[in-house]
């Protein structure tokens, strides 16, 4: 069964710092990997989607990389802002389990201190 | 385009009752998936519907069921509610059959007392 782990579970940084969130998964037979953010009590907002054939994706201050063979992804956030404070979740879809069945990590709770 | 909408947003039910939650996907999206989020188990996949057919199912008891209508709107039903069913229920839609980005709704917060 696919297992997704995110480290660290929580992270607190001062405004302006660059930071990296980590995600690892046990089964490399994936369709894609998606990064989301979730604000308290809210739904998920999609940040970046990386197909299994891609190595990275960028959107604004965010850059996500994927190393499928080692089962790892990182989300890089440049010049962090207080508005980036949220829980960040990574999720993968597996070739065996279906392209729309997301397996989620437990998330990293990010706090950016003004 | 309007996003994914879910109704109701909040619900309080008593143990043993049943509940129906509704999800309207983004216009043109044909796949709808449902997830349960709890503090203890995190986000877990319930099932996916595509073109009115259940295409995939997670590891949940038969008390959890769903359906999809011809306009792609979906409902999920939980019968004989248990305290452990208290959770945030999220639905997500994606534009076609496979491997597309999923867009989530705001969720329905279900509390079972």
- E-strand count of chain A: 11
Q: Which stretches of chain B are low in confidence, meaning pLDDT under 50 for 5 or more residues running?
A: none
Tell me the overall shape of chain A: globular
Distance between the ends of chain B = 37 Å
Q: Given the helix and strand composition of chain B, which structural class is it?
A: mainly beta
Instruction: Show the largest interface.
Output: A-B, 26 and 29 residues
Q: Termini of chain A, distance in Å? A: 41 Å
Question: What radius of gyration of chain B results from the CA coordinates?
Answer: 13 Å
Radius of gyration of CA atoms of chain A, rounded to a whole number: 14 Å
Helix content of chain B: under 10%
Number of contiguous helices of chain B:
0
Describe the main β-sheet of chain A briefly.
6 strands, mixed
What's the mean pLDDT score of chain A? 94
> How is the biggest beta sheet of chain B arranged?
7 strands, mixed
Query: What oligomeric state do the depicted chains represent?
Result: heterodimer
Note the overall shape of chain B. Answer: globular
Number of strands of chain B: 11
Number of separate helices of chain A: 0
């Amino acid at each position: 069964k696919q297992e997704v782990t995110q480290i660290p579970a929580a992270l607190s940084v001062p405004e302006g710092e660059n930071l990296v969130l980590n995600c690892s998964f046990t089964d490399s037979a994936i369709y894609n990997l998606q990064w989301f953010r979730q604000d308290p009590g809210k739904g998920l907002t999609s940040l970046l989607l990386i197909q299994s054939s891609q190595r990275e994706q960028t959107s604004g201050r965010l850059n996500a990389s994927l190393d499928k063979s080692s089962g790892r992804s990182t989300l890089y956030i440049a010049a962090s802002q207080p508005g980036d404070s949220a829980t960040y979740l990574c999720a993968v879809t597996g070739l065996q389990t279906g392209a729309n069945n997301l397996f989620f990590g437990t998330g990293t709770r990010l706090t950016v201190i003004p | 385009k309007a996003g994914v909408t879910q109704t109701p947003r909040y619900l309080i039910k008593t143990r043993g009752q049943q509940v129906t939650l509704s999800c309207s996907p983004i216009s043109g999206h044909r796949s709808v998936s449902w997830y349960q989020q709890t503090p203890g188990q995190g986000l877990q996949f319930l099932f996916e519907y595509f073109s009115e057919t259940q295409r995939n199912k997670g590891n949940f008891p038969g008390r959890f069921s769903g359906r999809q209508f011809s306009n792609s709107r979906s409902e999920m039903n939980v019968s004989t509610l248990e305290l452990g069913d208290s959770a945030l229920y999220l639905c997500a839609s994606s534009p076609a059959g496979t491997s597309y980005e999923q867009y989530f709704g705001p969720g329905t917060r279900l509390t079972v007392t």
